[in-house]
């Protein structure tokens, strides 16, 4: 496994380059890039079809930098300088414990002050370049795909919070023992928590920019499936604990690689299992028994489902139907993966189930109802 990018580089080229990048985090970022691409393509397509429209805004140009803008930029500059300079000076510590460095109160005061001055001056000088003797108001046109940057930021922040909240609810016993660590650690993320909270944030931004909810949901279906597939690559390569139950069954086909059938996830970032003899470092554990590599199964399945959604998207004319199909496919895929995946179980009325099984079932039902709604309201939705 490759808990960090350095491990991956060492595996490929045999060179040890200490870098402060976790493999999982890199693929989360790539998942956002993939989603951004798919969302943007769909927003442009729907605008070209006249289903969504650009909005008009009145902005003021030629204003000098305000005191509040300068102070805000100085504040962000201080935070960045405070942490970045400290991380550079203590690079070895940062490589070994990025979370500890970033979330601690430790930093470099001089670095913070220098970056605060730089950021404040940068804001001031940029505004001076466009300053007019008399500021004026102008009308600008904002196309739907141009708000994607705001959507990504909101989706990232609220998606992370949602993923952490749902994960801590799923592992409540561990959370109550260390609530601060549970909330602020960079590990332990639940996809559905991120989907629900991040999706709600995107809908909020879309609504503010004149994009109706059903059209925005349809835009998101293929992109979210693609992002999920890319993100799961990070789960598998880093060994973040999203693996399956023990699998001691013989391979059904001799040509099938061991890592695709039953895998022990050596050097996993979750640090679970037995210590690997002779291994030195933070990631020296390997599972005692091989397990189903469920993340790689989801990479494959989610990408296939993305291709299906991408192929049929131009044929679907009813608002809401694309997202309904996405919910159904997503729910079915995750429900059946849960049958061989390690997860905390709840028991209600004698029926055991996991959080993901419950949510995936609800998503499938919700998707089915949305498809039925789209069909029954065909005439009304034709002009939606």
UniProtKB/TrEMBL annotation:
Q: Where are the transmembrane segments?
A: 20-39, 70-89, 101-124, 145-163, 183-206, 295-312, 358-375
Q: Name one GO cellular component term.
A: plasma membrane
Keyword Membrane listed? The answer is yes
Top-rank taxon of the source lineage equals Bacteria
Q: What GO molecular function terms would the record report?
A: phosphatidylglycerol-prolipoprotein diacylglyceryl transferase activity
Q: Which InterPro entries match?
A: Lgt
Task: Name a biological process GO annotation.
Answer: lipoprotein biosynthetic process
Q: Provide the alphabetized UniProt keywords.
A: Cell membrane, Membrane, Transferase, Transmembrane, Transmembrane helix
Could you say which protein family the record assigns here? Belongs to the Lgt family.
Name of the protein in question: Diacylglyceryl transferase
């Amino acid at each position: 496994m490759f808990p960090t990018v350095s491990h991956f580089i060492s595996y490929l080229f045999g060179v040890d380059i200490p870098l402060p990048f976790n493999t999982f985090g890199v693929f989360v970022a790539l998942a956002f890039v993939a989603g951004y691409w798919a969302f943007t393509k769909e927003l442009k397509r729907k605008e070209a079809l006249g289903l969504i429209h650009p909005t008009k805004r009145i902005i003021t140009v030629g204003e000098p930098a305000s005191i509040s803008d300068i102070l805000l930029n100085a504040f962000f500059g201080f935070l960045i300088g405070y942490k970045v300079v400290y991380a550079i000076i203590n690079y070895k510590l940062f490589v070994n414990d990025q979370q500890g460095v970033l979330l601690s109160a430790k930093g470099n005061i001089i670095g913070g002050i220098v970056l605060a001055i730089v950021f404040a001056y940068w804001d001031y000088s940029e505004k001076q370049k466009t300053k007019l003797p008399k500021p004026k108001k102008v009308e600008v046109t904002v196309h739907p795909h141009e708000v994607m940057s705001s959507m990504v930021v909101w989706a990232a922040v609220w998606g992370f919070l949602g993923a952490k909240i749902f994960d801590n609810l799923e592992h409540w016993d561990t959370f109550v023992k260390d609530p601060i660590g549970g909330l602020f650690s960079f590990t332990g993320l639940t996809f559905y928590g991120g989907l629900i909270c991040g999706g709600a944030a995107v809908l909020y931004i879309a609504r503010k920019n004149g994009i109706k909810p059903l059209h925005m949901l349809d835009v998101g279906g293929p992109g979210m499936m693609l992002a999920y597939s890319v993100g799961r690559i990070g789960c598998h390569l880093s060994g973040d604990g999203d693996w399956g139950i023990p699998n001691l069954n013989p391979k059904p086909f001799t040509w099938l690689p061991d890592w695709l059938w039953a895998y022990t996830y050596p050097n996993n970032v979750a640090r679970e299992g037995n210590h690997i003899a002779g291994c030195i470092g933070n990631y020296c554990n390997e599972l005692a028994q091989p397990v189903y590599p469920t993340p790689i199964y989801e990479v494959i399945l989610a990408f296939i489902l993305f291709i299906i959604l991408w192929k049929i998207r131009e044929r679907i004319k009813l608002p809401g139907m694309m997202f309904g199909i996405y919910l159904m496919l997503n729910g079915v895929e995750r429900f059946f993966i849960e049958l061989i995946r390690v997860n905390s179980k709840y028991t209600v009325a004698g029926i055991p189930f996991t959080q993901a099984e419950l949510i995936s079932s609800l998503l499938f039902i919700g998707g089915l109802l949305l498809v039925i709604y789209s069909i029954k309201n065909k005439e009304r939705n034709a002009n939606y």
